[in-house]
Amino acid sequence: MFYKIAINNIDIAVEEINKITDNQKFNVLREELNRTIVNAVSSIAVYYERMDYSKLAQDDDTYLRAFAYLNNQIKHDKNLNMIYYDVSGSMYPMSYPMRYGKPGVYWSDFKNNGRPNSRGKREHYDLMLRNKDIEVTLLKVKEIFDNYFENIS
After folding, report:
1. What is residue 92's three-state secondary structure?
2. What predicted TM-score, i.e. pTM, was given to this entire model?
3. What is the largest CA-CA distance in the chain?
4. Least CB-packed of 76, 107, 111, 116 within 10 Å?
5. Which one, of 76, 87, 82, 149, lies nearest residue 113 by Cα?
6. What SS3 class is residue 46?
């Protein structure tokens, strides 16, 4: 059940990210995008807590620990700004390197409120998620979950 909920929430978040076709869509979709990403992170963490960690490859476990850390940050800081948008095309002021194609949504850097005894730590987040494309990272989790689910079924 938790597997299906996590996969569904990842799909919904990715679908919402793909609605951003131009820079103006960020403001229109900001609330819904935040909500769907928070739901995906939460369901990823809930399913991860129920997994047999010994059946995960070390890199996959580290990847999921990053989401566990992020979920704890969201729970303890309701105003957490966990994402940022990367605009594309010619917007002023311009920055280089310029981004071409559709705009992107990325995991941001934020104040660390983590606890030292938590399974997911800031170093996991920094290594696996910070400044990375959210869609790409969610699809990677989906792949990890699919592989895990196939192996335990």
Report:
1. coil
2. 0.87
3. 53
4. 116
5. 76
6. helix
Backbone CA torsion sign across 33, 36, 42, 47 = negative
User: Distance of alpha carbon 143 from its chain centroid, rounded?
Assistant: 14
Q: Which of 12-26, 38-52, 68-82 has the highest mean pLDDT?
A: 38-52
Q: How far apart are CA 22 and CA 87, in angstroms?
A: 8
Residues 136 and 107: beta-carbon distance below 8 Å? no
- Which residues fall within 8 angstroms of residue 55, CB to CB, at 6 or more apart? 148, 151, 152
Confidence of residue 102 (pLDDT cuts 50, 70, 90): low
**CA–CA separation, 118 vs 64, rounded Å?**
13
Phi, psi values for residue 28, rounded to 5°: -65, -40
What is the rounded distance in angstroms from the CA atom of residue 105 to the CA atom of residue 89?
15
Tokens of 69: 């850390």
Of 91, 118, 120, 85, nearest in space to 103 by CA: 85
Question: Cα–Cα distance between 134 and 141 in angstroms, integer?
Answer: 11
CA pair distance 108, 41, nearest whole angstrom = 14
